[in-house]
Design brief:
Distance between the termini of chain A: 47 Å
CATH class of chain A: Alpha Beta
Number of domains of chain A: 1
Helix content of chain B: over 70%
Number of strands of chain B: 0
Shape of chain B: globular
CATH topology of chain A: Creatine Kinase, Chain A, domain 2
Strand content of chain B: under 5%
Shape of chain A: globular
Largest sheet of chain B: none
Strand content of chain A: 15-25%
Oligomer: heterodimer
Largest interface: A-B, 27 and 24 residues
CATH architecture of chain B: Up-down Bundle
Largest sheet of chain A: 7 strands, antiparallel
Number of domains of chain B: 1
CATH topology of chain B: Na+/H+ antiporter like fold
Order of helices and strands of chain A: EHEEHEHHEHHEEHEHEEEHHHEEHHHH
Number of helices of chain A: 15
Number of strands of chain A: 13
CATH class of chain B: Mainly Alpha
Order of helices and strands of chain B: HHHHHHHHHHHHHHHH
Helix content of chain A: 40-55%
Number of helices of chain B: 16
CATH architecture of chain A: 2-Layer Sandwich
Chain lengths: ~375, ~400
């Protein structure tokens, strides 16, 4: 089978990947512990699939394929218990959040695998700076054409995902003023941003082959797009989210993704053309910078609208689909969050309390552990 | 020397021949050690090995009859430097880890106990008197905290082996202290001290040192937290507290080692809101490392070296083997792969510089016993000061926990 053959999967099936911070209990800084953690976790049967990531201070957990968000949430909670049990024995803390608030990237050790060393050789300091932590959401598609249509339609709602998940206001010891500083790190890579406007799988494969021929990429993994197709899984992958501070919030974001996708597939609310992307970069910036307080430009109606208002409108329109998918309660929690503030707001207010970044990390770890 | 004569009228010139200022030798030794450390680091060897070698060279040049080769002033400096390193190490110890992973406590007890038994049995085989066997075994059972701290800082090591070596060396130092406290009581009994004295001495040492540690930890926690963390003010305040604690421990004849180690550990426990990161004493602690390792290098006593070398090598081998077994037995339940367990065993090789202080205090109470103790244990210490730092560095590198192109 060709690697660019699009595997068929059930429409609206879901999978989630979470990149987690491995932190020392000694000083709250990132530490090397992925190898030991994985060794210990994999000794006993557990839910969730754990993998090493680009540095020793990050591990990634991914779920099985689910149709129901409640079940997905249960698997994530079980996986959390597994990693916490191992972390306790190794004297490590596990944290959510899109970036470590004060780690110094020069100290990060690249994980001992040839692909990762190659990566470090090519990207230099960017590879080490890339110690940021994201949540990736996979949504199943029946075929490649459907995947490409969904991908472009979703781009309209990326600011909503960015604002709701943003959890990296501090980076390298300073308040970046961004709600999600992680997105800026991703943007530094040449192959980041948006996918080209191919609306059929055939067109997309042609684009990919062209890029491969020119030596720009070797595989789909080399594209760091905000949304990218994943042919071997038969999914569209949303990659703009910071890893949230809590497991339940990760489940909520997955529920939002599933429900939005159903809405887009069933109602086809917008035409898919280049004008969708005319304002994409500026909307993305607004969401990363100001979070829920940002402003959106609606590419079709050509007007400005507060992101929060647009989100509430969206949640309104999603209601019938949420009822069908069983995500209504989870979306209700997101509506509540639109009122009370996102994870970045929590991080800032916690820091204001006693002005200690190490203490902030302890609080974040406590939140992630559900304490 | 007629041509010099007219200068004698110039009263502001120094007298001829020049009188050496003692500081000049200190300065030159320090400079030599730093340069040698730089050379070592370029050869990918630990800097502290170069400091030990500097001390060894120095020992050939000195003629002091002191049992450990330290003149009183140097002794004070050594003690303070060692105390600072212990405090710093103590701050890196998280006792809660033992609760979360009790197998670590088991590992720690096993590796120390096995090393104690192995070395003690060897000494008995060599027909050494029991009290000497117990003292040597008690000192040999611990892993050296200063070497651990020195090498870990030198290589900016972070990770599981680093954390475990640090924890085990701190715990080992505590056990070693307890065993020797009891041995002291036993020796008091043997030298026909009245019973209350026999019992009270170790009790006084343990309770007194513990109380002093708690007081120091409280002060180190509350005073610096009220000082703004700018221009190293917090660090300097902590350093001042350490000096006072060392002086009090001396005056009250308590254990400097245990007081400062426990002070470090307790101050970490008390930092509930994580306001103070573990303090890095930076330059001061680098100077302390240099002083401590030059001093251990000067232990070489050519006269006793020849007779003591074989038993000393025996001590070194027996404890290495015993510690290895202790670590391997409980590696898996404590969450360590066998490969990492072997690296941890290598990491535990360093012997403790506290040995030097114990030898001195033993010699001051029982001169003859101190002499016998010094011959074997100080030779073993010297051997390990040369072998152990590169071994520990090797283990940390193999565990992929060091920062290449190291900086401190």
């Amino acid at each position: 089978m060709n690697t660019m053959d699009f595997a068929q999967s059930k429409a609206l099936s879901l999978g989630v990947e979470l990149e987690l911070q491995v932190v020392s209990r000694l000083d709250g800084d990132l530490t090397r512990g992925a190898t030991e953690l994985l060794g210990l976790i994999n000794r006993t049967p557990h839910r969730g699939d754990f993998k090493p990531e680009v540095t020793e201070s990050m591990i990634e957990v991914s779920t099985a394929v689910h149709n129901n968000c409640v079940e997905l949430g249960e698997e994530l909670l079980a996986a959390r218990s597994a990693v916490l049990a191992a972390a306790d024995r190794l004297n490590l803390l596990i944290c959510g959040g899109g970036a470590h608030p004060f780690q110094h990237w020069a100290e990060r050790k690249i994980f001992d695998k040839p692909r990762f060393h190659e990566h470090a050789g090519l990207y230099g300091y960017l590879a080490k700076q890339f110690t940021v932590f994201g949540q990736h959401i996979h949504v199943g598609c029946e075929n490649g054409d459907a995947a490409m249509r969904l991908l472009h339609a979703l781009s309209r709602y990326m600011p909503h995902f960015i604002a709701l998940s943003a959890a990296s206001p501090f980076y390298q010891g300073v308040d970046t003023a961004f709600d999600s500083s992680r997105l800026n790190v991703v943007s530094a890579f040449p192959l980041s941003g948006r996918a080209p406007l191919a609306t059929t799988w055939q067109d997309f494969v042609a684009y990919f082959e062209e890029m491969k021929e020119m030596g720009v990429v070797q595989s789909m993994k080399d594209f760091y797009w905000d949304i990218r197709p994943k042919p071997e899984f038969g999914t569209v992958e949303i990659r703009v989210c910071d890893t949230p501070l809590t497991v339940p919030h990760a489940t909520r974001l997955a529920a939002l993704a599933q429900t939005v996708c159903r809405f887009l597939i069933e109602e086809e609310p917008q035409a898919i053309n280049e004008s969708l992307y005319a304002v994409y970069a500026i909307n993305r910036f607004q969401a990363a910078r100001f979070g829920l307080d940002g402003e959106l430009i609606d590419p079709h109606e050509r007007r400005r609208i507060p992101l929060r208002e647009d989100l509430l409108n969206l949640l309104e329109r999603l209601a019938p689909h949420a009822a069908m998918l069983g995500t209504a309660r989870l979306l209700e929690e997101l509506r509540e969050m639109a009122r009370t503030g996102n994870d970045a707001a929590w991080i800032r207010s916690t820091y204001t309390h006693n002005h200690s970044l190490p203490d902030l990390i302890w609080q974040q770890a406590g939140l992630w552990a559900g304490r | 020397m007629n041509f010099v004569f007219p200068l004698s009228g110039l009263h502001f010139l120094p007298d001829w021949p020049l009188q050496a200022n003692p500081l000049i030798s200190f300065g030159f030794i320090l400079l030599f050690a730093i340069v040698a450390g730089e050379v070592a680091s370029r050869l990918r060897l630990p800097r502290i090995s170069a400091y030990v070698l500097t001390g060894v060279l120095l020992s050939f040049m000195r003629g002091t009859p002191e049992i450990t080769g330290l003149v009183p002033a140097a002794h004070q400096v050594y003690e303070l430097a060692f105390a600072l390193l212990l405090f710093e190490l103590g701050q890196r110890i998280d006792l809660g880890w033992l609760r979360r992973n009790p197998w670590l406590l088991v590992t720690s007890l096993a590796e120390s106990a096995l090393a104690f038994v192995a070395v003690g049995a060897l000494m008995m085989l060599l027909n050494e008197p029991p009290i000497l066997a117990v003292l040597i075994a008690g000192l040999a059972a611990a892993t050296g905290p200063a070497v651990v701290l020195g090498v870990c800082k030198d290589t900016a090591a972070r990770g599981q082996i680093t954390d475990r070596v640090t924890l085990l060396s701190a715990l080992g130092s505590c056990y070693s202290f307890l065993v020797i406290g009891v041995a002291y009581a036993w020796q008091h009994d043997a030298t026909a001290a009245p019973l209350p004295v026999t019992l009270l001495h170790p009790l006084y040492l343990i309770l007194g040192s513990g109380a002093l540690a708690a007081l120091a930890a409280w002060a180190a926690q509350y005073l610096p937290a009220r000082i703004k963390p700018i221009q190293n003010n917090q660090t300097l305040a902590s350093f001042a507290l350490i000096i006072i604690t060392v002086a009090l421990a001396e005056t009250l004849q308590l254990s400097v080692v245990i007081s400062l180690l426990c002070a470090g550990m307790l101050s970490r426990c008390m930092d509930r809101s994580h306001r103070l990161q573990p303090l890095d004493f930076g330059l001061i602690s680098r100077l302390a490392l240099i002083v401590v390792f030059i001093a251990s290098g000067t232990l070489l006593q050519p006269a006793s070296f020849a007779t003591a070398i074989l038993p000393a090598l025996g001590v070194v081998a027996a404890r290495a083997l015993a510690k290895g077994i202790g670590v391997f037995l409980f590696a898996r339940p404590s969450g360590l792969s066998l490969r990492k367990a072997s690296l941890l065993s290598i990491g535990l090789l360093p012997m403790s510089g506290a040995t030097l202080l114990w030898v001195e205090s033993t010699a001051s109470i029982w001169p003859a016993l101190g002499e016998q103790l010094a011959a074997i244990i100080l030779t073993a210490l010297l051997i390990m000061e040369l072998i152990a730092p590169p071994a520990l560095q090797f283990a940390l590198r193999q565990a992929d926990e060091t920062e290449e192109g190291s900086h401190t």
